[in-house]
Fold this protein.
Amino acid sequence: MEVFEAIKKRRSIRAFKNMDVPEETVEKLIEAARWAPSAGNIQPWEFIIIRNKEIKHRLAAAALNQTFIEDAPVVIVVCANELRSSYGYGTRGATLYCIQDTAAATQNILLTATALGLGACWVGAFNEEQVRKVLNIPNGIRPVAIIPIGHPAEKPAPRPRRPLNEIVHYETF
Amino acid sequence: MEVFEAIKKRRSIRAFKNMDVPEETVEKLIEAARWAPSAGNIQPWEFIIIRNKEIKHRLAAAALNQTFIEDAPVVIVVCANELRSSYGYGTRGATLYCIQDTAAATQNILLTATALGLGACWVGAFNEEQVRKVLNIPNGIRPVAIIPIGHPAEKPAPRPRRPLNEIVHYETF
């Protein structure tokens, strides 16, 4: 699928068919993620791949009971390795670059999933401490996105967008 | 260009030909940016499009003298609208979601530029206060990325990537 088509076709999918996503497909998504750009090529990302039902259930609970998370055959939790970024770039690395770099990696996953006909959702609303406990995530590594992935069982319409003349500024703000 | 091909072909381009990038192309890049996902569809992004030589020069100075910025025919400065995200989601919105959402939009710009045969670079190293002054950016709006865009005058090799077995974790960290 063409880049721009995938960008426009991507939706947040919160309902999944009872169909597996094979491991090769997950590897393709991670491969896409790791080609994201990162400040100083530090690659401050870690990916936790979850298929275990009990863990998905506890993860959904940690994500304010967004139960569709546990309906997905596979869930990728993206973590920002704050340590790697702070070694390179101090506070700006730990609070900005590693968030941006992992977000670019997350967007690569979503676009690649779209191109493969899969559905996914970028879940950001969760209790970080709870997710940390469920997944044994050590200090210095921060969970930043939960991505349930499966075959879509819904076709949401595109959400509205702010008009260009509101978001575009010329030469100065 | 296919999504995955663009993801793999994208490079940080820091040398540009003396050739313009037409306004329709810039609009296409912004169009790609605004189809990025955002928490609660809040779309906390603002884009400043800069072609003025003097402003590009001052911007390069604010970006620790990365002079290649002023060699690009067009520069897009991506800003996070912290106010929009904090109305919706408080501190988590202002410090996490609006950074992630604008990073996803930035990645869309980079991938679309790659698909169009253009070169671009995600510049994160700059003095925010100086950039704010140069571009008259008000409080509550934060410059998060400077993207010089032009026709590439270099073909950098791919940078190395951390191996999969270092970045992938199964079930728990």
